[in-house]
Amino acid sequence: MAASYLSVPTTHFNLNHNALYSTRIPCFSSSSMSIPTISMLPTHSSLHVPHVISAIVTCKRVFRITALAQETEQVTEKAESEEDTEKGPEEAVAEEKSQGKITKSSLRGTKLYVGNLPRACDSARLTQIFQEFGTVESAEVICNEETGISRGFAYVTMNNDEEALAAIEKLRGYDLDGRDMLVNFPARLLSPGVGCRVYIGNIAWSVKRESLRALFSQYGNVLGLRINYDRKDGVPRVYGFVFLSAKSEVNAVVAALNGKEFHGRGLVVRVAKPYK
């Protein structure tokens, strides 16, 4: 970063030359802005010291605002990158080509995919939730083989087709510890980059899930929503992901909401990076 110099008059006054000499103070600026250099300020009546001081303050503010904008962009990119690397196929059901009303003719057995689960959710809790709709033959939360930590999705097998269908219709979008549970018949994983997942950045800390869901529902069928509140590195940030039912809805959401002011902040809305 280049440095420009602004001269601030000191208390040194030369009686012989009737001139006021100045001290050179560095003021850093971004590449898009330059500040002229002043080496000496004569003591004419046109000299306005407050104007010089104002220029210094303005320079500092420009630098701080520019640095903050760059930091915000880096934090946003980092947040999405971290989220993409830690998540697996738990949101696969949100990447189906279509999620219209399910009928008995579309039944594919009794095994269900359950996604977007909180890490603390175990098989016993899932069984308790699903048994309200029939007999649960099995419930298995998928965990990381090395760490044993839940990967955020599970498979639940019901006793028959009718019970499986009832569980899907009643539990899709079910609020489980602040997460919208995804429930459907197991879907074929689509190739990377073909998903219906949207990244949301620069969310105001005060924003609630309900208001964000209502906003995105105006442009598409919201299957699930996740918001992360993060204070890593001492920088508070809020970001999240919305799961939609079709790519056309993704395009509509990005076009309509990217840059839109919401609760005093301009949202960053774009197609989420593919899973790695």
Overall, the morphology is: globular
**C-alpha Rg, in Å?**
28 Å
Alpha-beta content class? alpha+beta
> Within the largest sheet, what's the order of strands?
4-5-3-8
Largest sheet: 4 strands, antiparallel
CATH homology group of the largest domain = RRM (RNA recognition motif) domain
- SSE arrangement, N to C: EEHEHEEHEEEEHEEHEEE
GO biological process, one term: chloroplast rRNA processing
Region (Disordered): 73-102
Biased composition (Basic and acidic residues): 86-99
Protein name: RRM domain-containing protein
Describe this structure in words.
With 276 residues, this protein is an alpha+beta fold. The radius of gyration is 28 Å and the shape is globular. It contains five helices and 14 strands. Strands 4-5-3-8 form a four-stranded antiparallel beta sheet, with helices on one face. A four-stranded antiparallel beta sheet has the order 10-11-9-14, sandwiched between helices. A two-stranded antiparallel ribbon has the order 1-2. The longest helix is centred in the N-terminal third of the chain and has 38 residues, at 49-86. 28% of the residues lie in helices and 29% in strands. The chain folds into three domains: 3-74, no CATH class; 87-190, Alpha-Beta Plaits (2-Layer Sandwich), CATH 3.30.70.330; 191-276, RRM (RNA recognition motif) domain (Alpha-Beta Plaits). Residues 110-188, 196-274 form the RRM domain. Pfam families: RRM_1. One of its GO terms (cellular component) is chloroplast thylakoid membrane. Residues 73-102 are annotated as: Disordered.
